[in-house]
Write a structure and sequence with these properties.
The chain contains 6 helices and 14 strands. By secondary structure, the chain is an alpha+beta fold. The longest helix is centred in the middle third of the chain and has 17 residues. The chain is globular, with a radius of gyration of 19 Å. Keywords: Isomerase.
C-alpha cells in the first residue's frame, strides 16, 4: 500500500485512512458462511497494519468479488453471499448482489452519499447476537470530564454531544481536524474509554472511533462528525453508523433526545445522509441488536497484479 509514506506514492493507497484498506477473501469452512472476510487497515504514515476493526464499506465489495472469482455461484436475478467476518465484534453478514443473467451487475441508480456516481444496490444484513451493545454496562459514562456513551454494535464508538465539546457539530471535517484543542480532548476521552470498553491501551489502535452528535439539520434523525480516530470521516462508516443508530434508538444515551418512532434512523454526515434500519432487543444497558440492514454500492475498478517493493 506504500506505507510508511503519508502520500503512499510507492503503493496503491490514497494517502488517507479511508482509502488505505485491504480485504482478504477466502472460501469459508465454518458453519453457514460461503466466504471469510478479513479487513486490514493500513496506516498511511506509519508501518502499521491492524485487524482490530472491520469495515462495512469494503464489505460491500466482498459479495461481487466472491461471485466473479467463482467462490459463490450466481443463483438468479440476485445472489446471496454469506460472509464470515474474521475481525472482532462482527461475525456474520449477508450480502444480496444483483446478478441478472448470472453476472454481477454494477450499474444502477442507487446513489450513496460521498460517492460521485450511482451504481447497483447491495443489501447488507447483519444478524444480532447476545452481546449487549453498551460494553461498559452503562448508557452514559464520563471520561476526561465529558459525558460519553460507549457503544459497540459492530464498531466500537464513543458518542459525545457537540455542545459538550464546545462545537456546533456541523463543521466541515478540515475545521475539526485543524482544532488542536478539540483533537487533544477527543484523544484524552478515547484513551480513558479504551480500558472501560475492554479494549485496553488504545493509543496505537484505530478503535474506538469518536462520533460527535448534534440535532439534525436536513430532516434526518441526528447529525454526526466522526474521528476515525485522528482524521475526520468525510461521511460515516457502515458499522459506525449501525452503532450510532443503536445508541440513537436506545433511550437514555447522549445521542437520544427523542427516540425515533420506528427502526429507521437517518444519520446526517458531512457529505449527505446514511439510512440504517436497526431492530433492538432488551432495554437499558442490556440492549442487544436483533438485526440491522443497510444499502451500499460497489463498482469494479481494476483487476491485476500488485508488485510490492523488495525489502
Amino acid at each position: 500500500m506504500g506505507s510508511p509514506d503519508e502520500r503512499q506514492v510507492d503503493g496503491l493507497g490514497g494517502g488517507h485512512p479511508l482509502t488505505s484498506k485491504v480485504a482478504v477473501i477466502a472460501p469459508s469452512a465454518v458453519g453457514p458462511a460461503d466466504v471469510d472476510y478479513l479487513f486490514l487497515q493500513v496506516v498511511p504514515d506509519r508501518a502499521l497494519v491492524t485487524d482490530a476493526q472491520t469495515c462495512g464499506n469494503l464489505l460491500a465489495g466482498v459479495g461481487p468479488f466472491a461471485i466473479e472469482r467463482g467462490l459463490v455461484p450466481a443463483s438468479g436475478e440476485t445472489t446471496d453471499v454469506r460472509i464470515r467476518v474474521l475481525n472482532p465484534t462482527v461475525s456474520l453478514a449477508n450480502a444480496r448482489v444483483r446478478t441478472p443473467g448470472g453476472r454481477v451487475r454494477y450499474d444502477g441508480r442507487t446513489v450513496m452519499a460521498g460517492t460521485p456516481f450511482p451504481a447497483a444496490p447491495i443489501d447488507l444484513t447483519f444478524p444480532g447476537d447476545d452481546r449487549p451493545v453498551f460494553p461498559t454496562g452503562r448508557l452514559v459514562d464520563q471520561f476526561a470530564g465529558v459525558q460519553v456513551t460507549c457503544v459497540d454494535a459492530g464498531m466500537p464508538v464513543l458518542l459525545v454531544r457537540a455542545t459538550d465539546l464546545g462545537v456546533d457539530g456541523a463543521e466541515p471535517p478540515e475545521a475539526l481536524e485543524g482544532d488542536t484543542a478539540l483533537r487533544s480532548t477527543v484523544e484524552a476521552i478515547r484513551r480513558e474509554a479504551g480500558p472501560a470498553m475492554r479494549l485496553g491501551d488504545v493509543r496505537d489502535m484505530t478503535v474506538p472511533k469518536i462520533t460527535i452528535v448534534s440535532p439534525p439539520r436536513l430532516g434526518g434523525t441526528v447529525t454526526t462528525r466522526t474521528f476515525i480516530p485522528h482524521r475526520v470521516h468525510a461521511a460515516i462508516g457502515v458499522f459506525g453508523a449501525v452503532s450510532v443508530a443503536a445508541a440513537v434508538r436506545a433511550p437514555g444515551t447522549v445521542a437520544n433526545p427523542a427516540t425515533p418512532a420506528g427502526p429507521e434512523v437517518r444519520i446526517e454526515h458531512p457529505s449527505g445522509s446514511f439510512d440504517v434500519t436497526v431492530e433492538l432487543d432488551g432495554d437499558g444497558a442490556a440492549t442487544r441488536i436483533r438485526s440491522s440492514t443497510v444499502v451500499r454500492t460497489a463498482r469494479k475498478l481494476s483487476d491485476g497484479l500488485v508488485w510490492p517493493r523488495s525489502v
